[in-house]
Amino acid sequence: MSEKFILEMRDISKSFPGVKALDGVSINVRPGSVHALMGENGAGKSTLMKCLFGIYKQDEGEVILEGKKVEFKNSKDALDNGISMIHQELHPVPHRSVMENIWLGRYPVKSIAGIKAVDHKKMYKDTHELMEELQMSIKPDTLMSKLSVSQTQAVEIAKAVSYRSKVIVMDEPTSSLTENEVAHLFKIINNLRKQGVAIIYISHKMEEILTISDEVTIMRDGKYVGTWESKELTTDLIIRKMVGRDLTNRFPTRENVPGEVVLKVQELTSSNPKSFKNVSFELKKGEILGVAGLVGAQRTEMVEALFGLRSTIGGITYLHGKPVKIKTPIDAKNHKIALLTEERRSTGIFPVLSIEDNMLVASIHNYIKRKTINSKQCVKVVKENIDVLRIKTPSHKTEIKNLSGGNQQKVIFSRWLLTDPDILILDEPTRGIDVGAKYEIYSIIAELAKKGKSIIMISSELPELLGMCDRIMVMCEGRVTGTVNSEEANQEIVMNYATQFAKQGGL
């Protein structure tokens, strides 16, 4: 690696009403290197990168790119100067094609009878060549709405590469990728590294950081902690520097005692022939039931059907021994079932509404008397939940979009806890959340199970399922392939079940 820095951010500070998000943070990035940026949710990582990318204007400090001071007025300015960013939360234009999304704002044009028009043929050709270069098998004319989350992530990566940037910021780029897709991303990163491109890599996945990065900068509470070469670090050391203390246990002690069966599902089958079929399982009172599987296993689709978000053509659901029909989320809520969705940004939060509004939206009827909302009671309940769940926020009136991912997740947890559910379905509850916030979420889940709440927990992180669940149900290509007690399970057993049909050549 060259000793010369391609990018220097010196003493960057940024404040918002009621909070100082960045306090004199510095980061120096070398060309042809992968520089990891780590810290708990709320540490200021994304804010720092938004200052770099022209989304925010820092209050103090300076940015030096290739030895010259720069001030980007907006993200286009940053892109024009060789800096691109893959955001954690994906916002594609869903009803336009892959190629239109990649070249948005810079379509190739041609002149027809003196009139300029978009050159779709060239755009298709350029996109096809880009996909071949990155070894991605996505057709340029496919609508974005037809792609999976992982494919959408891949298109965002392709778009960033298409700018031929000198610096690419990747914010949680593997949050929705399978192991094979992560390995492919690392190939792309290594090729970019050989071309002299600098990568700023933000992730909460310790193993990834130690595998792909050359250097690691750690932040805590909006301040710079330090920078180290990756080979000097271990997972425990990173955690200690991130949270400022030893975190001896990744998972809380489980004190729940599963009791009688509260939910029984028999032969549940989707109305979509390509989705889940003949799913049967039981959930006990006070039990944490994990659901494992690879991308395409139809886990999310199955629990959304249980919650009334998807239609089915077969199967019976029993609650407390009695058959019930759940056709809408209102039916599910009336049966004391709650669902914390997989995609926090798109299906969880109302970004422009306050923490208070987001927290009370599912239980507001409890605070209405004579057609009037009891505002004092609402504020009291919200503040109590902010304190109990340790939600970091300047005020209960703060717009939820201004919170970190972990704190947003806690608000959504509070929303459903206020409905007092008997069954809580959690779809990837810790995705994109740092190790400290994860432990707090785990503690909430363990406490709920101890109080007799029944939990269904979907996760793509096998250590999480093994550490948190009483039993793990495994799905592959829409079917349940096995259920194991967590004490008897290990990653190899679960993966064997998760790839069962693939080994057999399909269904």
UniProtKB/TrEMBL annotation:
Gene3D superfamilies: P-loop containing nucleotide triphosphate hydrolases. Keywords: ATP-binding, Cell membrane, Membrane, Nucleotide-binding, Repeat, Sugar transport, Translocase, Transport. It comes from the Bacteria. It is found in: Cell inner membrane; Cell membrane. Its EC number is 7.5.2.11. It catalyses: D-galactose(out) + ATP + H2O = D-galactose(in) + ADP + phosphate + H(+). It is a peripheral membrane protein. Part of an ABC transporter complex involved in carbohydrate import. Could be involved in ribose, galactose and/or methyl galactoside import. Responsible for energy coupling to the transport system. This is Ribose/galactose/methyl galactoside import ATP-binding protein. It comes from Clostridium amylolyticum.
